[in-house]
Write a structure and sequence with these properties.
It contains three helices and 30 strands. The strands form nine sheets. A five-stranded mixed β-sheet has the order 11-10-14-12-13, with no helix packed on it. The protein has three domains: 76 residues, Immunoglobulin-like (Sandwich); 65 residues, Sandwich (Immunoglobulin-like), CATH 2.60.40; 237 residues, no CATH class. Strand 26 and strand 27 form a beta hairpin. By secondary structure, it is mostly beta strands.
Amino acid sequence: MKKLLLYSLIALTLLAVYSCKDDDETIAVSGLTLDKTSMTIKTGETIPLKTTITPYNATNQLVSWTTSDSTIAKVSYGMVSGVKAGVATIIGKAGDQTAKCEVTVIPAFCKVTFDSDGGSKVVAQTVEYGSTVSKPDPPTKANIYFKGWYLEDKEYDFSTAVTSDITLKAHWWIPDNVYEEKAFSVSATKKVYFSSGNLQYHCKNKLWRFAPLQYECIGNDNENISDDYDGYIDLFGWGTGNNPTLASDNYRDYATFTDWGTKIDGGDVWETPTFDEWVYLITGRENATEKYGVAEVAGVRGVILLPDDWKLPAGLSFNSGVASGFSEEYYKTVNNYSSLEWQKMESAGAVFLPAAGHRMYGTKMFNFGELGHCWSSTGAELHNVPEYAFSVHIYSNSFEIANFNFTSRISGQSVRLVRPL
């Protein structure tokens, strides 16, 4: 009986010992999985990751979290938050087991910026990710046409879903010069054709050309006049065919007239009108006063000359003469044409002399877009003022060349060449 009691006591002791040993044993984690191996979230959005640990009764149920790039995606207790667009990897770890989820963060909103490339300003738009951007009204730009909005080198399709910040750039095209030569009488026995644009000179490359469009002006860039300037000028001191970049303040440097016509198309085609020829054109030919009128063409101010045999294009009107007042705004009160309308006018032989301003005191520009002058080949020596020469004056309220309309030879003025028939 005593032995039996002893054996029972030993068995109970051993059982207690082994029971305690089982309670203290650690059950290791053998596996960790996430409910997602990849996901897409928006900036500012938070989505949970759910975990599964095996075995289910593993001693350590704690999961720690890290991110490969906290500037893109953050994680806290399995809650993943999008920070900015990009890709980051979220890593969960339990024991020595890890699981990963690749997170793509997309913007909640996208900004579409419009670069008008020198045209009128277009306001940027902010749109929801995956939606489309509204097509804005086309911008405007002096003398040229809007072609469309481009993303890189391809015209943008406004039905495309926006999935990132983008910049759309305006592309432009310049209308063709469709000027058709028609005859202008400059004396009772002489007719001429006008060139297709004012004379221009590339200082560095030493190249002459006519302006690509009749209403094209260089403007304030004429102040860059020098032999090293890598660009065009279109205002010249009197008779500077041999020295187009001359900007001297001494009239004696302009004593000898070299016709600019000798420098273009072989030198024997074009010439500068004389004083008498300008006078006859404006006042002496048949119906002369009906064949000029101040105007604004494609936003550029100046005066229109009509050929001897003029036929007005259908759908257009023309008003001869000058405005009632002197300012930039008065030009268009007489005539106002868009680029397309002007193409119809010039295809019928109309000539436009832009109010290109003038250059004085060496390189200083004045009155661009307000008034203009075109040189004649005639100096004012007979009027005992050898420092002067005659030129046509273009104002909103006057267009004339007369005995008193001579200007200093040092003045940079426009040159419009003619070709005798």
